[in-house]
From TrEMBL:
Its EC number is 2.7.1.175. GO terms for biological process: glycogen biosynthetic process. It comes from the Bacteria. This is Maltokinase. It is an enzyme of class 2 (transferase). It catalyses: D-maltose + ATP = alpha-maltose 1-phosphate + ADP + H(+). The keyword Ligase does not apply. InterPro entries: Kinase-like_dom_sf, Mak_N_cap. Gene3D superfamilies: 3.90.1200.10. One of its GO terms (molecular function) is ATP binding.
Length: 462
């Protein structure tokens, strides 16, 4: 098989799967992924590469698991080189005479991604079985094909390449069949003129055929690179460790969230849901979570009572961020910017797109202040957290404070988030599970028995 033919040489399957299994963005680590198929998409440079640059194509790798659970699609960006590759970068596999590299790690290849966007390339299936790729430009901003690509190493779920100080292309790794929420929400918020999110310059999408069925997914988004941005979690921890208050930042975050919620209401509308239906969902989620994390058992009765308080009325619901925490915020010289509107990673697309109460996001940030305080620990942490909480709520409600019934609604959402966090921590950071468990001790309705986790800010993991 040559570099120009679609498909994957049989001997390349093993090294490719090993590379994918070891990648930070691979969601199925430790679950013995099984190779199912490799679908090449059209070459980005249909006429061949310029000079001695590598040829670049995207591809979809389909992966399954030995127990037959779930099929996952991962995007690969591949640079085919016939000469030496970038220094220090090992090829993923060999295809005929070509060494094939991860194009996001190969600066020459990464240039092709930006060029394809700037040219708004519409790369159709040429009858060779390769899927189609289409690039859409919304706003050229200061985009320029001469911008120098630089791989960004500080993330987990996806892969981003920075282009000078101007733009960032985020390649979605685990593909979601259908529309990508981050693209959809950025577009809507940009159209609404919201200053608290990055400008969406463009995006790309693909369609391909698998077993006679046409599948489609969004592949990447190109957004404004926010200058001098500091991650909200790092900033908060730094301030707390230095003994400095975070109230003003927290208030500004509350105001930013209120603006975003307003814009999401305008763009996607609102509806209502019986509180009892939401309580049922939360209760069911608690049951599923308890099956994974037995530590939740003592809180069961109190949490069910807590959720039941929602049953007293109707909840107004709308599109929300869905996984709002300090790590989804960037502090810039022009204020807070909110990123990553994809919701909680474990939820299905249908769940993440479903309208929800704004208290989901408010609760998410309150949980994050609690995490920050618990992970730093020490005498002043609880007071620091409570001050952040008050300032954030003040900013969110524009000084009006919580209205009738809001405190109960908020507490139910905080409890639901903390239940999710217990499972997240059991699976990802077992040393941190005492943080959400500590919060649940306070959030479970009075009926909950006393338990050893009730002092959330003592002995918290470092
Ligand atoms: N527009 C942006 N400008 C600059 N840095 C950004 C921008 N968007 C995200 N980042 C950086 O990339 C990191 C990961 O972004 P995120 O959207 O959460 O990606 P992932 O989906 O891979 O988790 C953020 O924590 C932030 O440091
Ligand atoms: O950023 P992601 O969408 O991947 O969110 C997941 O991972 C988060 C951790 O990185 C997790 O957040 C929890 O830990 C944070 C501190 O690391 C804390 O600020 C959050 O409040 C807490 O929920 C998030 O829940 C999970 O979905």
């Amino acid at each position: 098989m040559t570099a120009d033919s679609p498909g994957l040489p049989p001997e390349a399957v093993e090294p490719l799967m090993a590379a994918v299994n070891g990648a930070r963005w691979f969601a199925g680590k430790g679950r013995r992924p099984v190779y199912r198929s490799f679908t090449p998409l059209a070459w980005l440079d249909a006429d061949g590469p310029a000079g001695d640059r590598p040829r670049v194509r995207l591809a979809v790798l389909e992966v399954g698991y030995p127990d037959g659970s779930g099929v996952e699609h991962y995007q690969l960006a591949l640079a085919y080189r016939h000469g030496p590759g970038p220094e220090g970068l090992a090829p993923l596999f060999r295809d005929g005479a070509a060494d094939v590299y991860d194009a996001t790690q190969d600066p020459e290849a990464a240039r092709s991604l930006l060029e394809a966007l700037l040219d708004e390339r519409d790369l159709r299936d040429e009858g060779d079985g390769a899927g189609a790729v289409r690039f859409h430009l919304r706003d050229t901003g200061a985009l320029d094909r001469a911008l120098v690509p630089q791989v960004f190493r500080g993330q987990q779920s996806n892969t981003s390449v920075m282009y000078g100080d101007v733009a960032m292309i985020k390649l979605f790794r685990r593909l979601e069949l259908g529309r990508n929420l981050d693209i959809q929400v950025h577009a809507a918020l940009n159209d609404a003129g919201t200053a608290d999110v990055a400008t969406l310059f463009g995006w790309s999408e693909a369609t391909w055929t698998r077993d006679g069925e046409v599948l489609g997914a969004d592949l990447s988004m190109c957004v404004e690179k926010l200058a001098d941005a500091v991650d909200g979690w790092d900033l908060a921890l730094g301030e707390l460790r230095a003994g400095r208050a975070f109230d003003e930042h927290a208030a500004a975050l509350g105001r930013a969230l209120a603006v975003i919620h307003d814009a999401l209401r305008t763009a996607f509308g609102t509806s209502t849901q019986p509180g009892s239906a939401v309580a049922e969902v939360m209760t069911a989620r608690l049951g599923a979570a308890t099956a994974v994390a037995a530590e939740l058992e003592p809180y069961g009765p109190g949490l069910r009572d807590r959720f039941a308080t929602l049953g007293r009325g109707e909840l107004e619901v709308q599109r929300v961020h869905g996984d709002f925490h300090l790590g989804q915020t960037l502090h810039t010289p022009s204020g807070w910017k909110i990123i990553d509107f994809e919701g909680e990673p474990v939820k299905s697309l249908a769940e993440r797109v479903a309208p929800d109460s704004v208290w989901r996001d408010v609760a998410g940030m309150l949980r994050s202040f609690d995490y920050a305080a618990a992970s730093v620990g020490g005498d002043g942490s609880a007071a620091w957290r409570d001050a952040c909480r008050a300032a954030f709520l003040d900013g969110y409600t524009a000084g009006r404070g919580l209205q009738d019934g809001d405190a109960d609604r908020l507490a139910a959402y905080e409890a639901d988030k903390a239940v999710y966090e217990v499972v997240y921590e059991v699976r990802n950071r077992p040393d941190w599970v005492s943080i959400p468990l500590g919060a649940l001790a306070g959030l479970a309705h009075e009926t909950t028995e006393q338990n050893p986790h009730e002092q959330p800010h003592e002995g918290a993991p470092r």
